[in-house]
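Hey, why these numbers?
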Amino acid sequence: QVELVESGGGLVQPGGSLRLSCAASGFTLAYYAIGWFRQAPGKEREGVLCISSSGGSIDYADSVKGRFTISRDNAKKTVYLQMNSLKPEDTAVYFCATDLVPYCGSVYGYWGQGTQVTVSS
């Protein structure tokens, strides 16, 4: 059974950093792309970053370019989202997802339950 579990969220001050983890089970992570998404209160869910099976990444959200980095450790079956220079507008529930394809696409069928990131002073 495909399962994705996010962790690492919390409260951080503006300008601070967090690293989120997405732990995968039930499938071989190395074969597939993983995307990070976020949903702020009252807003639709938006894509943040995606990493392909080959390690290439795509910036879904221009607002995070230069601040967020996605990476993967296939041996640990974990994908990371390193978030630096956090802003209040980054406050959201962050989700990881996969569609069991090796490339980054627009449709993701498997989702974690999310981890809350709150950026506030």
